[in-house]
Amino acid sequence: MITKHSVQLWLGFFISTTLALGCSTPGVNQPPSSSLGQRNPTQVLDEPHVHGEQAIADLANDKILVDAYLSRGPDADATLMNEMRAQLSIVSTTQKLASSFDLMVSQLQQAGTTVDTEQLNRSQLYCELWENSEFLMGAEARLQAVQTQLLTRGRQSDYDWYLALFRANFGDSPAELMAKAQMIRVLNDNHANVCQHRTPCLRFTDFPGRPLGPFDPLNDQEMLDFKNAMLPRLALSNARDLYQRPGECYQQATRSPNSTGTFDWGQRNHTGRGQPKGTFIVTYDDGPHPKYTQAIASLWANARLAKPTFFWLAENAQKYPSIVEELHRNGFEVACHSHSHPDIGNIAKATSFANLSKLNRSHFSGQATVATSRFESWKSEVLDHQIVGSSKILSDIVTLRTGKAYSVKRFRLPFGSGVKNAAIGARLQQSNVSHYFWAVDSLDWQDRNPASIVQRVREQMTATGKGIILFHDIHKQSYEATQLLIQQTQSNAGIRYVTLTEAGL
Amino acid sequence: MSHSLKLAFSLIVVFCSANLHAGAADTQVKETKKSVLSSQIHSAVLRMRDLSVFLRATKQVCDIPAKPKAEVLAKIQAEYAAELSDVKATELTTTETQMFSTLANSCVKDCACVAIEDALATLLSTPKIQSLIEQVQKSAQKMVDQDYLKCQKSLRLNCQSAGIKEVSTALQSSP
Prior knowledge:
The structure holds 2 protein chains of 2 kinds. Chain A is of the alpha/beta class. Chain A has helices spanning 4-21, 41-44, 53-58, 63-70, 76-110, 117-120, 124-131, 133-151, 156-168, 174-189, 191-194, 221-230, 241-244, 250-255, 265-268, 293-302, 314-319, 321-329, 344-349, 358-363, 372-402, 422-431, 450-464, 476-489; strands at residues 269-270, 279-285, 309-312, 333-336, 410-411, 434-436, 440-441, 467-472, 496-497.
C-alpha cells in the first residue's frame, strides 16, 4: 500500500535508525520524529552551532601536514591517530550510507513521489545499515572517545590534522555533504571538551546545500557514482535492484525497527515456498523438552547440516532456561510459539467466554467467570500475554543468561491458528516478529512410527520441492524420525537444508 | 482470514462431527448405562480417533492441494487438542477403566491406538492406566497411513464427500 502516511511513519523509524547508527550523540537536538517526514536535508544543517564548512575547506590542501603525522611511525601519537582515522572512516562511511538513503526518501517525498515502504526496505543499502547497526554504534562511541583524547591535548596541530582528515573522508555529493554535517554534530557535541583550550572555538558555517529538484532514485547517476566510487562493497550493479530485488536481509530490515503500523501478513507470513528448489528449513515446535530437545539438536549438529529453528513455549522455556541458553549459544535459532499453546486464532475471533472453543475454555478454565462485559479487555490481555509477553520472556531468558541483548524475531501461532487476523497481526507487529507457517507437515505429534513420519515428510518434500518443515521437539518419535530423515537425506544432492536466516526469512 | 475460509473451517468441523457420531453409534448402543462422565470421555476418545483417521487418510484420498491442506490439517489438530482437553486430569472409575481396556484391545482394527494413548496420558495415572498405555503404544508404533486408509473406509469417513470438497474449494479460492 502506498500512502503518504505510511511514508511518514516509515521515515520516522528510518531516520531514528539513521540517527542511532551515525551521529546520534546525547545532547544534540534532533527534529522531533513527528516532523521528520517534512524535513529537508538543508534544514538539518541550519542549527546555529553547525557551521565551519569554510574552515574545513581552508585545510583542503594541507596534505603535507597530514602526511607528516601519518609518517611518524608507531609511537603513541601515531597509534592514537590511526585509531582516530579508522573510527572516523567507519562512522563516516555509515553516515554516508544513512544520509544517502535519507536524502533519497526526502527528495522523493518533496518531489511528490509516492513511496512503497516495503520496497524501500528491500534495498541493500538499508539492509547494510541495519545489519551493522550494533557494530557501528560501538564505532561511534570509540570515535568520540579517541576524538576527546586527541583534541583535548590542546595542540593546534592535532586539531588541524583532525580537520584535514575529516575533509578527506567526504566528497561533495548531496549525500556526503549531509553525512559531513551529521559528523560535525559529533565534533560539536564534544564541544565542551574540544574547545576548552581555544578561543574562539571551532565554528562551522556556510554549508552549501543544494536545491532539491526532481529526483529519480532509479536513474540517478550521482547516487550511482557515489556508491560505485565510495562504497564498492555495496555497489549495486543495477540501480533498479534498489526497488526490485529483495535484499537478503529484507525481513530483518522490515521487522526489527518497525513496531508500529500494520502487520503485513502477505509479506511476513512465511512457508518457505519462495525458496529455490530443493531448499528446506527444519523447525520444531512446543519445547524445550528436557529429554528430546537437546538430543534432536545434537543430531543436526553432528550431521553438520543447517541448524533448525525451535519455536518454543515461553512456559517451557521458563522451566528449562538452561536448554534455551545452550541451544542459543550453539547457534540454533530460538523462536516463540506463544506462552502456553492456546488456540490464539479462536481467542481473537471470540466475542464472549462461552464463545471460545472447547480447547480454550479448558485452557483458561481457571478464569471461567469472565463476564461478557469484561471479555474484550480479558481477550486483549490474553493476546498480549500469549504473543507480546511470551516473546519478551524468551528474549529475556536468552539475554539474561548470555549477558548479550537478544530479541526474538520469529513467532508461530499454535495450530497455525489466527493467520491474517488483524488483532494478532497488531501484536506480532508490536513484538517485531514475523510469522512462520510451514509447507511440510510431519504429523509427528500424531504418528508414533518414525519410518512412517519420514515417509510422509519425504513425500511432501518431493511434492512441494521446498519450504519449511514442521516437527515437534517433545516426542520420542520426532527424535527418531529426525535421525532417520538425516540418514536418508544428508547425502542427497537435491536436498539442501538451510536455516531461516540463511533463507533470508 | 477470509469469510470463505471461516466458512470452510466451520464446515470441516460440522463434517467431522457428523461422521464421528455415525462411526461411534454401534459402540454407544452397547453402553447405554454409562454415566455422563463416561459418555463424555468415550465420545471424546472416539472423536479423537476419527480425527486421527481423517488426518492420516486425507493424504491419499482427499486430494486437497498442499497449501490449504496444511491449514485443514492444522485445524483438525486444534480440534483433536480440544477433545483431549475434555479428558484431561480425569480420575477414572473402574467402569471407565474397563471401557478403555476394551477400546485398547481393538485399537489396531479401529485405528484408535494413538487417540487412546493420548487420552490415557492425560488422565490421572494409575498402574492400570500405565499398563494400558504400554499396550497401545506398541500397537500405535506399528500403524502406518495405509492402515488408516482402511479405517477411513470402515468408519465411512469419506473424504470425497461434499463437506471436504467444499472445504478444499473454499480454501483454494481464499486469498
